[in-house]
Amino acid sequence: MSYSVNKLAPELVAAAESTPSGRLPLSSLDRTAVVRLIVDLILVFEQGVQPAKAIRAALSRALVAYYPVAGRIVEPLPGETEVDCTGDGVWFVQASLDCGLEDVNNLEHPLLLPRKDLIPYAPPDVIEGDLIFMMQVTEFTCSGFALGIRFNHTVFDGLGAAQFLKAVAEIARGHARPVVHPVWSRDAIPGPPKLSPGLPLPSFEAFNLENSVFDIPSDHIDAVKNQFWRETGQKCSTFDVVTATAWQCRTRAICFDAHVDVHLGFAANTRHLLRGLLPQEGYYGNCVYPMGIKAKAGTIAGSSPVEVIELIRDAKERMSTKFLDWMMGDAEADPDKVPLEYGTLVVLDWSRVGFSEVNYGWGEPTHVAPLNDDHNFVPSCIYLQPSKPKQGVRLLTRCVQKEHLPAFTEETMNFVHN
Fold it and tell me: Residue 391 gets which letter from DSSP?
C-alpha cells in the first residue's frame, strides 16, 4: 500500500529576539575534511500534540542562545571556514502523512517510505552546503510524529547536534532558556600545523554495499566483557566489544587472504583531553579525532575476541598522546588516514551521543536512525540504541557487498546466539 506525504513549503525560522552579527571562526577540528558533510537523521516519537507548531516555536526561542546556527557557513579563503552570523534562520518544513506509524513499521529499517518524504530540503536556489541546520516535523494519523533533521558536521559533532536538539526540547517543555548554556569557544582549540597544499584528492572506488540491521543484546556484550576481565584483569567498554565483533565478523565473512592488510577506522571523542581549554559543558563544536588500526586479515579472523579488543584498546590509548602532540604542532602526529577500499571498515558510535534523550514533552523517541545510507565509498557500521524496550546495541551496517552478506549475517548471528 502506498501513502502520500503532504509537505508544506519550507520556511525560515529566525531567532525570537535580535542576536549578535559578525563572523565567528571555526576550530581546526571543525575544518578537517572528514566533517565537511551534512548528516541526515530521524527521531520517531509515539505521540505529540500539534508537534510541528510547538517545536517550531521552541526552535525560534532556542536560536536566541544558539544564534550562530541561524547563520551561514562561508569560506573567505580556501580552508578558512567561518560562520557568518547573518540571522537568516533555519529552514523548517511541516509535513503530514495519511497513515499511522504502525502502517510503516514505525519507520524501522528498511524504510517503507522514501527518505525524501521525511527529511527537509531547502528551496532549489539555496546552497545547502552553506546551511548549518534544517528541520522537518512529519505528523502521522496516530498522533505520532517523526523529526527529520539535517545538520552540517562542520559546525556540530554528534554530541553538539544532540545538545542543540535537547535545548529546543527543553524550551518546548516550558523552560525559559536552554538548561545548558551553549559555548562557541572555537578559538580555544589550538591550530595544528597547516598540511602541505596541493595534495591530490584520493580517487574513490564505489562499492555496491548492502544495508543490514542487527541487534546485539546487552547480556552478550556483558559476557565478552567478563571474558576480557577474566583473561586480562582489565575492563573493556561496550564500544570495544561491539567494534571487535563487527570487524571480526566482517573479516571472516569476506575471506580475505591471511596476509592482506585490513583497516579499522573510528572517530575518537577528545572532549576529556580538552578539559583545560574548553568549559565543562556547553561546547557544541567538533571534538572528534580520526583513528585507524591496521592488521593482517588472518590475525583478525583467527584471533579470540579478547585479542581483537586489545588491539582496539591499544589504539585508543595511543590516540591520547597522538592527539595532544598534533594539537601542540607536531606535524608527524597527523590524524590517521584509512584507505578508502573494501578492506577498510569505519565504525561510528551514535548510541550514547544523546539523540535518544530528546523529549519535547511527550516522551523520548522510540528510535533514532541516520538516513545517510546511500554512500558507497567506505564500508561502515553505525551503533545505535535498539528500539525500546530492547537493551544493547543496534548495528546499522552498510559494509559488505551482496555476495558477502549471507556469510556476514551468519557470522554476526552466531555471535548474537552464542
Answer: -
Apex 49 CA angle, 44 and 51, nearest 5: 55
**Cis amide linkage into residue 389, ω under 30° from 0:** yes
- Residue pLDDT, tens place only, 345-364: 999 999 989 999 999 999 99
* Max CA pair span of the chain: 62
- Whether 172 and 231 map to the same domain: the answer is no
| Cβ pair 93, 135 in contact under 8 A | yes
12 secondary structure, DSSP code: E
User: Looking at the 3D structure of the chain, how many domains does it have?
Assistant: 2
Residues 256 and 402 occupy one common structural domain: yes
Q: Sheet containing 344-349: which strands, arranged edge to edge?
A: 209-217, 392-401, 380-384, 344-349, 261-269, 288-296
Residue 110, preceding bond cis, omega within 30 degrees? yes
**198 pLDDT above the threshold of 60:** no
- How do residues 156-192 score in pLDDT, each as one tens digit? 999 999 999 999 999 999 999 999 999 999 998 887 6
